[in-house]
Amino acid sequence: MFALMDGFLKNDSISLQKDILRHVEYTVARSRFSFDDFEAYQALAHSVRDRLIERSHDTQLYFKRKDPKRVYFLSLEFLMGRSLSNSVINLGIRDQYADALSQLGFEFEVLAEQEGDAALGNGGLARLSACQMDSMATLDYPAWGYGLRYEYGLFRQVILDGFQHEQPDFWLNFGNPWETERVHVTYPVKFYGVVEEENLNGEKRNIWTPGEVVEAVAYDNPIPGYGTRNTITLRLWAGKPSDQHDMEAYNTGDYINAVVTRQKAENISSVLYPDDRSFQGKELRLKQQYFFVSASIQDIIRRFKDGHTNFDEFPEKVALQLNDTHPSLAIAEVMRVLVDEENLGWNKAWDIACKIFSFTIHAVIAEGLEKIPVDLLGSLLPRHLQIIYDINFKFVEELKKRIGLDYNRLSRMSIVEEGSTKTIRMANLAIVCSHTVNGVSNVHSELLKTKLFKDFYELWPEKFQCKTNGVTQRRWIVVSNPSLCALISKWLGTEAWIRDVDLLTGLREYAADADLQQEWMMVKKVNKMRLAEYIEAMSGVKVSLDAMFDVQTKRIHEYKRQLLNILGIIHRYDCIKNMEKSQRNKVVPRVCIIGGKAAPGYEIAKKIIKLCHAVAEKINNDDDVGDLLKLVFIPDYNVSVAELVIPGADLSQHLSTAGHEASGTGSMKFLMNGCLLLATEDGSTVEIVEEIGADNLFLFGAKIDEVPKLREEGSAHKMPLQCARVLRMVRDGHFGFKDYFESLCDKVEGNDFYLLGSDFESYLEAQAAADKAFADPQKWTQMSILSTAGSGRFSSDRTIRDYAEKTWGVEPCRFPSDG
Ligand code: 26M
């Protein structure tokens, strides 16, 4: 089996060239003498795909032979972005491909731009899944990702007259060269119907007769590791009509209806829910959750049974990671399969379930947690509702023995919430069954223990862990910032930091070195140039490269306070306008860049986008201000836009009201790219401060424990004058649309839940400190180098190693080859 250790395919540039031409001719079906950029991209992608497939096969066969414990990462969202550059870099053959292409008259970078994003997720949680897949592959863990193959990814944001409009993202339109459809890997997934108790030889059995069956088909997406031959798989499920179920309908003669019903099956995986806030109790969403969970569990059990007969060994071979509550029906599904189909008996099944699940929470507030109406669950998944009731009954009985008849506490901890609509608390279910529960930063994990899940922490302190988030330096430095990557390797004298990111601390000793600073500034300049070109192409605004590029890009949310940023920009504009002309040469010029999508139903967030455009319109057309201040909104922010924006940023803003951002991962990407942070002490920022020191970034605002008191005090009396003044400008119609913006102003001047008023002065001070630092290029550059040097802790490699060792109990399983 290992005779051809490094595979059939050769990677020298001549072989790659032939390979690309072969794909032009036979896969893309164009003449090898005449093809355009897109066709060249397709052929190139197929050539890379061949290499990925070979490595996946090798990896899977090797895992099968070694039979290690595997970890299965269950997530309803993965924001993978583009795959081409990332793949060839991880395969270690980017330069060879670039050579091959240039001989054919094409440029690698240009072809890479042809690829669309795979945007099967909303924001932080979804991009985190993608970063973690990269780390699991690179660190050689025997891991699988499981998710849904949405036909429509996150909506495309189109701005018309400054307003957000949503357009469907039919991303599979031109085919997807990275995936492989596995026509033989399909499972029936059941819905609706009835459960009947049967007596079989004196034993009670629950028989679920479904009302609908949909087939789940696997689509495999290879995830190559860097510096290893290991290539793991992200398996995404798509809905297909099930023949098994249709037979009856055809037999009854209702042919037309039967065909129409078949079509409905595909709806399950058709569209990603675009809200990253809360649960709305929609049936289709619940169907999506169960569909992907059921197919994944069937797949995992099939793999286990291929080689094992005794379920006692299951926990030694399987770890299941729940990415938030979205996949937590997996718990009820595992119980159903073990009890109803494998006949293990409840206690044994429960014992197994409790050993395999672990659970990551990404939410901060109780309102963000999923609660499924019992009526909905009972109609869609009648057997699962029974199982959840049984789990809860046993849990509450046990709890009574441990804590006595404290009914308040019992009802808080119960999986079932009584009330006008009875619901299932998915987080409680996940905590009860998981052996470990973790938050995504230190402060968030503490908050889980002291507030959100205090009762559970007191019952099971040993379950609670912290896994501070991280991002992959392969995507966020090597792929997106090749010039910085080369510079770092040059000064460290090695590329080893790409796998061993702690080595970045080696840059610290050169932070004051004039030569490094010079080269560092050059790299930033080049990246700013790329970004400036993009801005001009998107918005027509010309920006000065000497200005500070100040960026806030993330989903639009009230708690992330893009409004604070915009009010600060209005204040800056107002100051410049009121300044003596002779004083204006002291102003540090700024290009303020804001980008992000608002959930389609989130009215206030949409108004913030409109306000940004209205203010930009005014400022950018004011010749009196010129290059001293520009404001641009970057439309349709996604992974590939982030790859362009982040390397070009001088300053980035992370303004969440303290206590509201569980972690925040954008900040880590900016940090790696030598961008200085202006931030509140929230989520992972607290840990970033520990790594790089408080004097290496610009902190402001109320701290987490000050927030409740400030809220109690109310806002009116502490509204600073400058803030009142900018709000007045908005109210007076300085930027037009005064009626439309009224409700935004009311929120700040009303109860000001997100504390814009009370943080405003401190925010302006931090901004002034940033201006001052930027005016001293040496100092700024040194801080920039120290930011990158201190970013190693925020690599997803660290996070994943921690999960593997402390949560999953899995070990690396590396295919024996040179890479
Ligand atoms: C739930 C139900 C129905 C439809 C959508 C959802 C839903 C989807 C995504 C709810 C929340 C979702 O994401 C939340 C999220 O992205 N949380 C962020 O997770 C990051 C990674 O841990 C953290 O860094 C951020 O602080 C946190 O806000």
Low-confidence residue ranges: none
Main pleated sheet:
9 strands, mixed
CATH topology of the largest domain: Rossmann fold
Instruction: Say which CATH homologous superfamily of the largest domain is assigned.
Output: Glycogen Phosphorylase B
Please tally the helical runs, counting DSSP H or I stretches of 4 or more residues.
32
CATH architecture of the largest domain: 3-Layer(aba) Sandwich
CATH class categorisation of the largest domain? Alpha Beta
Note the overall shape: globular
The Rg value, from CA coordinates, equals: 27 Å
Number of strands: 24
| Amino-to-carboxy terminus distance | 17 Å
How do the strands of the widest beta sheet line up side by side? 7-10-11-4-1-12-13-17-18
How many structural domains are formed by the residues? 3
As a percent range, the share of strand residues is 15-25%
Average pLDDT reading? 96
What share of the residues lie within helices?
40-55%
Derived from helix and strand composition plus strand pairing, the structural class reads alpha/beta
- Hetero groups: N-[(biphenyl-4-yloxy)acetyl]-beta-D-glucopyranosylamine
